[in-house]
Specification:
It is a single chain. By secondary structure, the chain is mainly alpha-helical. The chain has a single domain, classed as Arc Repressor Mutant, subunit A (Orthogonal Bundle). The chain is about 60% helix and about 5% strand. The protein contains five helices and three strands; from the N terminus they run ααβααββα. It has a three-stranded antiparallel β-sheet. The longest helix has about 35 residues.
Length: about 170
């Protein structure tokens, strides 16, 4: 603001940048929902998540990104085609998944969400008990990857605009 209390041009631009950042934060899971629903559709599922199910889809995000992070130790998500429908080799054991999510989710919550993600055909579990192996569908990889890339692009543009204003 200038001495008379009016907004200066740069203050108005700064305000609009912050409003854009707030909007990005509020809509980031709308991007995830779009990619998640596309993945489910691509594997033949009929479930469509809505923005009213944000907490459930956040849990799915955390579980899928946890499995994908382990999968990326030996694989490159940028090489997965949008049409790929196959399952990965074993990524981790159920016990490993419990350990990685300990402190964030109880084992019963992990089990419940694993059942849902299996039903959606985005994860698979082979075997029984804690030694069973977890496998991820390539459509889940595509959904997580494309969501993350879209978020990165949106935030990079916002960052460039902010830097231009504050330089």
């Amino acid at each position: 603001m200038n001495a008379s209390g009016e907004r200066t041009g740069s203050a108005a631009v700064l305000r609009s940048l912050f409003i854009e950042a707030f909007r990005l934060g509020e809509t980031r899971f709308d991007v995830w929902l779009r990619h998640l629903n596309a993945a489910i559709n691509n594997v033949g599922g009929e479930r469509v998540f809505t923005s009213n199910e944000r907490q459930l889809t956040i849990t799915h995000w955390v579980m899928l990104t946890t499995v994908m992070s382990a999968w990326m130790e030996d694989n490159n998500p940028l090489l997965v085609t949008a049409e790929a429908l196959d399952l990965s080799d074993a990524v981790m054991s159920l016990k490993d998944l419990f350990v990685l999510l300990d402190g964030r989710y109880t084992s019963s919550t992990v089990q419940k969400n694993l059942i849902e993600l299996k039903r959606l055909r985005l994860l698979d579990q082979r075997g029984r008990g804690e030694k069973s192996t977890i496998h991820i569908n390539m459509q889940a990889i595509v959904a997580v990857r494309d969501t993350a890339l879209e978020w990165i692009r949106a935030h990079e543009e916002l960052g460039r605009n902010f830097k231009r204003l504050t330089s």
